[in-house]
Automatic annotation (TrEMBL):
The protein, known as: Protein CreA
UniProt GO cellular component terms: cytosol
Source domain of life: Bacteria
Signal peptide extent: 1-19
The species this protein was found in: Limnobaculum xujianqingii
Keyword Signal: yes
Pfam families: CreA
Keyword annotations from UniProtKB, A to Z: Signal
Cross-referenced InterPro entries: Uncharacterised_CreA
PANTHER family: PROTEIN CREA, PTHR37952
């Protein structure tokens, strides 16, 4: 019963988070005679709690008949790059967040049980936002992950 409730809650989260990203483009990686090709998709999303931070996520998307119907499970491969696009002001809630981070993005990568998510951390000592992307399953996780950092510097200045 607990697994069914967890799966239902997870599925609800997956579908509610899908509208947060914007597809920038994609490249085909494997030709499929039936259904769409396998591809790498590039998506952009803005951090919902930190104004002027945009992240770009590339991830594998499975094609074929199952992929075209939304029934395929995408691989856990993904890359992440986040940038400052304007002045950043951090709230105390973000600065005081615990070491487990805060989820800022989630995309389902299978029909129910798998998702790719981005979690934000704040490194107070270095005044830097750290974004971690990883794939997980309800049953077991994946060690595949990628990291991006955004140093909080006055807008228009650079490190020299």
């Amino acid at each position: 019963m607990k697994k069914a409730i967890l799966a239902l809650c997870s599925a609800t989260l997956f579908w509610s988070a899908c509208a947060q990203s914007e597809e920038i483009g994609s490249v085909d990686t494997v030709f499929k005679l039936l259904g769409p090709d396998h591809k790498i998709v590039i998506e952009a999303f803005d951090d919902p709690d930190v104004q002027n931070v945009t992240c770009y996520l590339s991830r594998a998307k499975t094609g074929g008949i199952k992929g075209g119907l939304g029934l395929a499970e995408d691989t856990a491969d993904g890359a992440l790059s986040c940038i400052q696009v304007g002045p950043i002001t951090l709230t105390d809630r973000i600065k005081n967040r615990k070491a487990d981070g805060e989820e800022v993005f989630r995309k389902r990568t299978s029909i129910i049980f798998k998702s790719m998510q981005v979690v934000r951390f704040y490194d107070n000592k270095r005044n830097t936002l750290v974004y971690l992307v990883y794939s997980d399953k309800v049953v077991d996780g994946s060690p595949k992950n990628a990291l991006s950092t955004v140093p909080i510097i006055p807008w228009g200045n650079s490190h020299e």
